[in-house]
Amino acid sequence: MLKPVLTLFFTLVFWLVGTVTALPSPSISLVRERDVATLTVMSAAQLAALAPYTQFARAAYCSPNIVQGWKCGEACAAVPDFQVTLTGGDGNAVQYYYVGYWPSQDTIVVAHQGTDLKKLYADLTDLDIPFKSPDSTLFPGVDPSVKVHSGFADEHAKTALIILNEVERLMTLHNTKTVTAIGHSLGGALAELESVFLSLNLPSGTTVKGVTYGKPRVGNRKWAALVDVRIPDNERITNKKDPVPIIPLRSMGFLQVRGEVHIVHPDYAVECPGDDDATESQCTIRSVGLFPDVLDHVGPYQGIYIGSSFCT
């Protein structure tokens, strides 16, 4: 089952790349100024600390009926104190999602499923690339010059309010002021939108953290700047030669956000400078180069695979 899904995914990725190869190279204005001068090697302790978040992203691919009881095998067992309170989605027209409270970190967790390429609507969400301004009702005060991927924005809007209501309820119930948005692939794009949405709609003083895996680019330069300001604690994990984090292309006006943690090989990862570094050989753009490996999209992320075939 996995082989045909990955074959279709490989075809999808390179169809997207191939449709824009005739476009001019991105101008330097699309690349934001680097925040730090050099990349930093992550310690073993820092890498180990990512494991629970990876398991949350993995669990988001499991159907709501098993996530509801937090009985999704290895992924759920790895974070035994988590208390799931809301699940939803059908994995097709609406991606799976769940919300709950993580006592050991005193944070509300919101997780979104990534693309299951066996599901048509999810595929079409990824392919709906044209820019649009974020919904002014969901993203109050955001300048209309900020643009995001239409398909990602429309998918996020389907569940935004029900998730917001549950997050608000849990924050009151547990007297916490921290929220963490997590996701892989399309789920990572939704988590990025979720994190900004929550930061704009939750009470002042709320801290929102983002943790994403293999996330595609979500918006334009101004969107990237907005994410960088609103979500300063953001970890964008990328794996080896996975091509998904470099699509849609920068020549189309898209730009990644900062916070890249690039897994170069098992037990060795680096924190990359700036938003979308194209100069460091150990960061995604140059690592992928002309020889991407779509299998790297599912992992392993420090020994953990994420995707529809690995939810348990």
Describe this structure in words.
The protein has helices at residues 2-18, 44-49, 51-59, 64-67, 74-77, 120-127, 150-174, 186-201, 221-230, 284-288, and strands at 40-41, 83-88, 97-102, 107-112, 131-132, 148-149, 178-184, 207-213, 234-239, 260-265, 268-271. By secondary structure, the protein is α/β, with parallel strands linked by helices. The strands form two sheets. Strands 1-11-10-9-8-7-4-3-2 form a nine-stranded mixed β-sheet, sandwiched between helices. The chain has a two-stranded antiparallel ribbon with strand order 5-6. α6 (120-127) packs across α7 (150-174) and α7 (150-174) crosses α8 (186-201).
Features:
disordered N terminus, alpha/beta, 17% strand, two-stranded antiparallel sheet, 312 residues, Rossmann fold, 11 strands, globular
At CATH level 3, the topology is Rossmann fold
DSSP E strands, number: 11
- Uncertain stretches of 5 or more adjacent residues: 1-36, 120-124
Counting helices, strands and paired strands, the structural category is alpha/beta
Q: Main beta sheet: strand number and arrangement?
A: 9 strands, mixed
Question: What is the CATH architecture descriptor?
Answer: 3-Layer(aba) Sandwich
H/E topology pattern: HEHHHHEEEHEEHEHEHEEEH
- Integer-rounded radius of gyration: 18 Å
* Order of neighbouring strands in the sheet with most strands: 1-11-10-9-8-7-4-3-2
For the record, the count of structural domains works out to 1
Determine and state the CATH class.
Answer: Alpha Beta
Number of discrete helical segments: 10
Beta fraction: 15-25%
CATH superfamily: Alpha/Beta hydrolase fold, catalytic domain
The portion of residues assigned to helices is 25-40%
